[in-house]
Amino acid sequence: MRKKIIAANWKMNMLVSEAEAFLHTFMHEIGGENSVEIVIVPPFTALSRVSEILGRDQKAKLGAQNMHGEKSGAFTGEVNAAMLRELYVRYVVLGHSERRTLFGETDEIVNHKVRAAIDAALRPIVCIGETLAERDAHQVEAVLRRQIEGSLHGVNARELAEIVIAYEPVWAIGTGRTATPQQAQEAHAFIRRTLSELWDAPTAEKVRIQYGGSVKPQNAAELMRENDIDGALVGGASLDPRGFADIVKAAAAL
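Request: output the structure for the sequence above.
Response:
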């Protein structure tokens, strides 16, 4: 059985002092919960302090919002995998729709980063998803398959089993609109079926697929009750420690 994974993507929010206050409240709220894997994904400026608070055992794992695909070099403003590893980062979000749409990241760029993350023993959370125009044009499956093939090119079955895929319909991110549980399940089932075709069925069954797109305490349980939805990549709702704790609790209760 796949262990649910709930990730808090704070995006460009949270000063270090705010991160400290969040974790104090959040850790108190979830108590000894360990049936769900929790990932905290702060901005780069808070990684060091959040790492210290979580400790080496990391009851909640530490994630980064992005990284560069090269090991070093003249890439002003970027960080590499080794820099993240030094801070005990376990996961890294790659190919988020905001990186794709605002910063022009292609499947090829995401793939380069995925390879670098795997080689550095970081676990990628690889984001894929369609725009509203693509959904209205009935291109959802074609878009998802293209992103899977491009972003995960060259990944072997053993490596794939360690990767988390986040399905995030672009039209539902930060808009308040959420895919219905049926819409989300259909996309997740297609993703798993595609993984089975491109790799193999046993490996596809191991891969955890998160849903991301206006997840909140009120809809989390309904979404994660679906067979192929293995957790959530939470944006805005993850900025409230009690609300995020409620999402974790909803996953734990399933």
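Residues 5-252 form a domain with the TIM Barrel fold (CATH 3.20.20.70).
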